[in-house]
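Two folds, back to back.
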Amino acid sequence: MARHQVATHCPYCALQCGTELTDREGAVSVSPSSFPVNRGGLCRKGWTAPEVLGSADRLYEPQLRIGRGELAPVGWEEVLDRIATNLEEIIAESGPDAVGIFGGGGLTNEKAYALGKFARVALGSSRIDYNGRFCMAAAATAGNAAFGVDRGLPFPVTDLGEAEVILLAGGNPAETMPPLMQHLEGARLVVVDPRRSATAERAELHLRPRPGTDLALALGLLHIAVTEGWHDSEYTARRTTGFERTWARAVTWWPERVERVTGVPVSAQRQAVRMLARARSSYVLTGRGAEQHGDGADTVSGFINLALALGLPGTRGSGYGCLTGQGNGQGGREHGQKADQLPGYRSITDPAARAHVAEVWGVAEKALPGPGLPATRLLESAGTPEGIRALLVFGANPVLSAPHAGLARAQLSKLDLLVVADFLPSETTRMADVVLPVTQWAEEEGTMTNLEGRVLRRRALLPPPGSTRSDLDVLRGLATRLGQPESRFPTRPSTVFDELAHASAGGPADYSGIDYERLDSGQALHWPCPKTPDEQVPTPHPGTPRLFLESFAHPDGRARFAAVDWHGPAEDTNHEYPLVATTGRISGHYQTGEQTRRVDELATAEPESFVRLHPDTAARRGVHDGQLARVSSARGATLARARLDDSIRPDTLFLPIHYAGAGCANLLTNPVLDPRSGIPEFKVAAVSISSAEEPSA
């Protein structure tokens, strides 16, 4: 029996668990490897990932919509010609910023890099952003401000296994990344979550703040740390700046005030701080629950302030970190598909960064556009006089993932041209004028960067099926038709990576000392990993698994406290919408569910959207367990199956984000943005709930 096997990584979350893929005459199976992050474990999404490779509705050939008709098959040369001609006409009439690019946090480093280069060089457009703006932007902004660099975990995942206490604010890894839990088993957990999640059930202490009050809680915990003598003043004086201004804000957040605002008892606040401060080794970690707010960056800064006051960051065996969500959420934001960044995590407004990258790309620095629009505003601009007229989407499903999904759909329908490159039909491909079938994870070579900044090799097991092409091939095909030399857009992933590494040299995320040869030899390489001149240092740089042990990345080597304050969510409850809806993930599905809803085991276990609510809330609203319910906000309504849960706050509803159609949770969510990071307020929406009629057969 023919058998082929490769070592690679799971296609889903940012743990990037190590796997072995085996192809036995077309039947692909997966087994976990001893990779340090998962140590031989996988979640059920990882175990069932190969089923997606053979999806019955896989996209195999390009499709073009003629007029208002159905999508019809077409050849590659014809469809690329058509796209390029339309783009040239739009740019000639309205300028390059009339064309937008929307990328994804699951794209390989090579594809994310090429996408940013394509937007800024081939199109000359500043209008590029990606779906990581919906989930990681707040933590990235706060981390850069505090430490001078943003890396989800500035230490290896395995360090968490030695922790005595871990405070986890707004994360639920027991469901979203189960293999991580083996590294948390030895720690006493403090979990901040308005509902009793699977992770909260394992916690020694569960703090249940009202959604939208996480920053008030963080300020209160800092207040207790200082007033009760847990503040590490020697560390603050030696390694930080800005404490006095920050304390001037936190001093007004005494425990009783925090309890009134958040609902978290004073005794629980004090217990949380004492657990962290008394531990020999402790960590503060944040997740989407703390980040997806109109004050998301300030909220993350609040928890970083607490960690700094206790002397945790940059201390071996302790620290602060963020649980990155998407598979390449870390690498995807480092190399140029984010509206304000160039490769190597450089700022697009930095003259030196612009000059360096322009030289690598062989273009004039002044030809590079400036910063663009954050993802939500990019989508909202579609079809407006000063907005985009065309949008190219790679590896994302914004029709479901954007806040106020009804508005996002309405705006995208106004575009002159919507092009979507994907490997499965999605809610976004169904709106597209052109659909381009591209390779997926087991059919392509490349690199990913996991949540600990470790650069990993993705390896192909299968050849591209049908007439599918890689995203790199698509971008070169379009770029050459737009007048670019073929050599400027290589399609060999290792060649693209070498260029990416050169472009990142000297930047915060420096990959210049990494290449495929080192990765394929099994070396564990965390960025920054600069290239060392052979004539001076014959041994290559080993990478940097632990940041900040000697100094932080700011020029003076010190971390920055942030003087933040709580002002409440953008939308408050009222008579018409008296409850608060918050959204999140569940164990059986991933992102918008485009892949996992096609896996029989996962779809059978969680086939439809649901809403968790307290039994008392259900009784007052006339909703029964198992009944179809209508949840409404000022923006729209969604239908979900009621699940009564006496551990959730009576003022709070929880809905998963993975469902389409009438079950789309983002029909409710608020598109207001955090002014610092551009992240939307997914976690707080004023809503009402009522019973709904079952759909007819």
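---
second:
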Amino acid sequence: MGTLFLQSSPRFELPSMIAGLPDAFSSLSFGREQSISLVDSLSTSSMDSFLVLGQMGKWMPTFATPIWVLSIGLLLGVLMAAVAYGVLAILSFVPALGTIADRPRQGVTLSLIAGAIFSAILCVIYLPQGGDNRQLLLLPLITIGVGLGFGFIYGMWHRTRDEWFSMLTEGVVPYLLGTAAVFAVLGLVLTPFVENPRGILESIPSVNVMSDGTQVEVATIDPASSDEPEFFAAGIEYNFRNVAELTIESDKKVFLADSADPAAFSRSPVELNPGSSEAIKYRYQDREQPPIPGDPGKLHIYNQEIDPARVVFTFKNLPQIPQASSIVFIAIIFFLTLTALMATRQAAPRVWALALSTAKNEMAQPLYLLLLALGIFGVLLFGIFPFNTLGDDIRLLKDSGVTLIMIMGMLLAVWSAGTSVSEEIEGRTALTVLSKPVSRRSFILGKYTGIMLSVLVLFVILSAVLLVVLSYKPIYDARETSEKLPVWQVGHEEIMTTLPVLGLYFMETMAIGGVAVALATRLPLLANFITCFSIYVIGNLTSPLVASAKENTELVGFVGKLIAVVVPNLNSFNVQAAVDSGNAVPLIYLAGVFNYLVVFVIAVWMLAMLLFEDRDLA
């Protein structure tokens, strides 16, 4: 092909100067045939390069846009934290506010009061959106409110203002921020390939943060004063650019038009009969003509009956590009995480110091690097491994990836509990720590916090790799099966449905980590491993055991219920069925599992104190 192309294109013929080269160069055996072959290979390689660049130009927007959206969320979170704590740092120069937390008891008390206020505000805003399961949102909202209260009070502390740099550069914080920075930089580098970045950014202000996006407008229309149709202005406000769904109901027969003058109608009026069964329903995704004009000032209604008509418009508002909601979601998660780390450090310095020491020691172990390397290798391997599932490879990738990350996290948690708690007790190191002003409660809590911080870093790094692989996986599958390249929204949806699963599996790791720390006060490492493994297996079978016990004898039922009480119900954290079916995990389910985790961790902490309180450390 290259030779034919060379012969038909004069631009690729050999320059005439080659024919006039001195005879001395003829001994180099660089004849016309070799020259044509060289140019032929160069033209072929150039064509291959252009083809590769052309293919990259086709699939790069699909790969780059989901990553860019998440990176913008991280940058927005940084901006939120900088603005919020910048304002609090300015307030800290006020003597009455800057010294408010100098006395620990006063700081904690005021933080709890501020947390109660924040919790009340959050409950008023978000509890009505929970529907029938609104009670499940109560504890998560209170937890977030208390965290914001501590962040508010200690954010105004003069010591916090002076220690921000050391806070961001100590312990596990640089690893978390570094991973977020690498992900954000990757997204910014891919900006030239992003599809419609301006539209995504313009959709951010339309994201529903304080509500679910439902807007109800009521128009009362008087009847016509004559026999001629008389159209009155509806007098309602809406932004049709953000309307995803619309329902119009009326108690009288009315007509909807786009002008008061029938001669100026751009289309025929829309008839609306009374009754909910006659309601007009519109969805943006159906790409049908809207029943009302885009400009609310043009909406006019004619009431055909003799009594005033009540027309109810129910709008479901979403951003013009719905995926922009994930930007705000990521920003809020980042802000709350940074707030939790800062509040823990400032409000509980002894626990934080012990947690940082534990986390640094565990992250310096060879096992940590081994688990991290195996996790990254496994996630990358799953991305290119042919599962041969006839189109469900990406679901198996998600299932395998999140399960691998969870297993790595649990191994690290149990191992760290054995080396950090059990071996320190046996080696009398714990006695040295407790000889300082550190109580046994602070010792257990600090060890558990440090172990979970090291696990969090592992989760964050492996999750970041998994999200990048998930963004490319739909493209890889389409190229392998010679199908049409998917749109970028497909990869974004796969990422956003994976994040809640990762959150659930991290909560499950926290539950197993709590059990491991409690048992480490009495058991050596090997016995702890075996016990935690048994609890994990039985815990994932708790729900089936209870269900099967109902159909058996009373003794079998009693044993099944006893196991359900003693062993944690880890099946609550398992959403493999949702992952396999491609369904998203609802936030209300996350709230319910969080409630269970809090109660379980508190119970395990009390058990750990019972086991550790009378332990002879000498």
